[in-house]
Amino acid sequence: MITGAATKSGIVGWPVEHSRSPRLHGWWLQLYGVDGVYVPLPVQPADLETAIRALPKLGFAGCNVTLPHKQAMLRVVDEIDPVAERIGAINTVVVGPDGRLTGSNTDAFGFIEALREAAPNWRPTGPCVVLGAGGAARAVVVALLDAGASELRLLNRTRAKAEALAALDPRVAVIDWRERAAALADAALLVNTTSLGMIGNDELDLTLDDLPSTALVNDIVYTPLYTSLLDRAMARGNRIVDGLGMLLHQARPGFAAWFGVQPAVSADQRHYVLEQD
Ligand code: ATR
Fold this sequence. Notes:
Elements lengths: L6 E7 L7 H11 L4 E7 L5 H10 L4 E4 L13 E2 L1 H6 L4 E4 L5 E4 L2 H12 L9 E4 L3 H12 L5 E4 L3 H8 L5 E3 L14 E4 L23 E4 L8 H8 L3 E3 L2 H16 L7 H8 L3
Parallel strand pairs: 1-2, 1-3, 4-6, 7-8, 7-10, 8-9, 10-11, 11-12
Antiparallel strand pairs: 3-5, 5-6
Helix pairs in contact: 1-8, 1-9, 4-5, 4-8
The chain binds 2'-monophosphoadenosine-5'-diphosphate (ATR).
């Protein structure tokens, strides 16, 4: 139930109808009995600044940001937090009491929290292998660097994009995409941030023979939840982290900032979010 005093947030994207965020936040709003709403906000790229500037005037507490606006939002907000600056993208906006807009990026937090939830004792003590160099990869690389990873191996079909991302930190080494099977030797973690393995896309063609059985394997693809990478990793005894965890955990800081409750991710919520589609 909402009243005239309801706190308002939502997700700005184009298109936005497939976003799971309204369901994800809607679960928490109901669970915690918050007088609030979280709505889809379809905004075309040309209208981004006008729409975002209207948020304080409409009494919104903030919003999440998804494709294709995550980078463009850097030029719209009044303040950018340092993590968002390094990732080069904003996924969460908070309206301050004075109407100023602060942009942050909670994807790195979400990634690390998902790993912690699935494998509480795991630490980035050995090489971490990251496949892909798109927006999701940037958040994963920043998260692993901040978690203290000593060596990151970055592989992307288009090598130049991996080189650009590697410029973030000398601990990131670029390895050619064709060497991906051999790059798994001694790894403590393997993360797929490419869209390979997603329903409708090609499978990730990767032989896991050189991956230590102690390595953690994470696929940020969550449609399907158990990708063939995760299935194969599980079958050979690796611990796995599915892609839904990052989606759920990245939502926590925004919800806390807008609605004033620190939310907890749960198994029931996971099922509820997966039921969409
Ligand atoms: P996101 O923001 O979700 O990370 P993205 O920026 O479109 O999405 O990145 C998609 C990633 O999947 C990229 O690393 C892309 O590789 P390229 O940079 O070479 O395009 C990777 N990817 C997509 N299709 C691929 C394929 N068939 N083989 C290898 N990598 C692929």
